């Protein structure tokens, strides 16, 4: 009989879920959100957009294929989306203590312990997800048996973009065309998708004035938290829009481009986090299945007259992308680079590179 410590998830409204610990045995707190993907926990855990969040996985089993090795390929992680775990904790219905996958070099539990990230299993994640859908994402904390209690922590009250962005200029790949990548919490697969299309990527911090360097196109990455916190990025985007060179944004990049255009954003009740979000290209019958991870959205009604929605979510009608009606500026709220998830919309990288 395996010995595990008891752990409890406590939500800010007082609701509790009792389970067992399988990761680092310490208490933690953050915003509790759920993801309905069936696979991809190594990518999700290392996605900077999950900074400060306790991730609930709705698929009933976790850990069955372990985690891949740490190694780099072309200056970025080969299998992960950043160099460390960004989630505050992970929650599952059941944890598989025995893993099997040809790429795995250790278990999920071992990885969590290495990075000091708690994990809890043995709770009813269906009931928890229903609670979050009815009441919205909320703050929570995991208290592991034998460890001290911790206060609730609201990640949206601080500038998470500044927390996860790079702190110096980096260069990835090579090519005749140069793309400035504004790092608001970039996933490594965005860099992979750009460099394998033959462009040089200059990765700059979130508040870097990139208008002072030569470039052929501008790319704004994904990132965590409230877009209102990244006002300096928005100011620099307005300068770039005046220059007129091609601009593309993903996720947080969609929200920041919208704010630079003059639109507003708002917090969704429980966000979109999954591999199966259907979106429709505005003005057409073309629909795509997309990978998503965001808690804020653009308010379509506030877009200026020279901008329009590019994609619309088929489930709730929210914005999934914008474009300028005459200039080479566009963005997507979902993740065309996927990782993990469907690659149905990776063609957006081709469209951007063709604009350069």
Automatic annotation (TrEMBL):
Matches recorded under InterPro entries: Anth_synth/Amidotransfase, CarbamoylP_synth_ssu, CarbamoylP_synth_ssu_N, CarbP_synth_ssu_N_sf, Class_I_gatase-like, CPSase_GATase1, GATASE
Gene Ontology BP terms: 'de novo' pyrimidine nucleobase biosynthetic process; 'de novo' UMP biosynthetic process; glutamine metabolic process; L-arginine biosynthetic process
Protein EC: 6.3.5.5
Top-level taxon: Bacteria
Record pathway: Pyrimidine metabolism; UMP biosynthesis via de novo pathway; (S)-dihydroorotate from bicarbonate: step 1/3; Amino-acid biosynthesis; L-arginine biosynthesis; carbamoyl phosphate from bicarbonate: step 1/1
Positions annotated to bind L-glutamine: 49, 223, 225, 252, 255, 293, 295-296
Active site: 251, 335, 337
The protein's role, per its UniProt record: Small subunit of the glutamine-dependent carbamoyl phosphate synthetase (CPSase). CPSase catalyzes the formation of carbamoyl phosphate from the ammonia moiety of glutamine, carbonate, and phosphate donated by ATP, constituting the first step of 2 biosynthetic pathways, one leading to arginine and/or urea and the other to pyrimidine nucleotides. The small subunit (glutamine amidotransferase) binds and cleaves glutamine to supply the large subunit with the substrate ammonia.
Protein name: Carbamoyl phosphate synthase small chain
Organism: Muribaculum gordoncarteri
